[in-house]
Design a protein that fits this description.
Blueprint lengths: L1 H20 L3 H43 L1
Organism: Pseudomonas monachiensis
Keywords: Signal
Protein name: Co-regulatory protein PtrA N-terminal domain-containing protein
Length: about 70
């Protein structure tokens, strides 16, 4: 009887740990990866606009100097 109880306790603890191991880690990782991708895309667009703005300013200054 004691060995049966011990086996039952071990089986219960094993089953609970396996159930908790699949508790949404994949969903969390996918959400994190999606957020990282959106963040990097936004950063790249901002950097591109910043660069294009600087080029446009320098061309405008060059045009103003040429007119003078």
């Amino acid at each position: 009887m004691k060995s049966m109880k011990a086996l039952f306790v071990v089986a219960t603890l094993t089953a609970s740990s396996l159930a908790m191991a699949t508790g949404g880690g994949d969903k969390t990782f996918a959400r994190m990866e999606s957020a990282r991708k959106v963040s990097m895309d936004t950063y790249q667009v901002a950097q591109k606009q910043k660069t294009e703005g600087a080029v446009a300013e320098s061309k405008a200054k060059a045009t103003d100097r040429a007119k003078s």
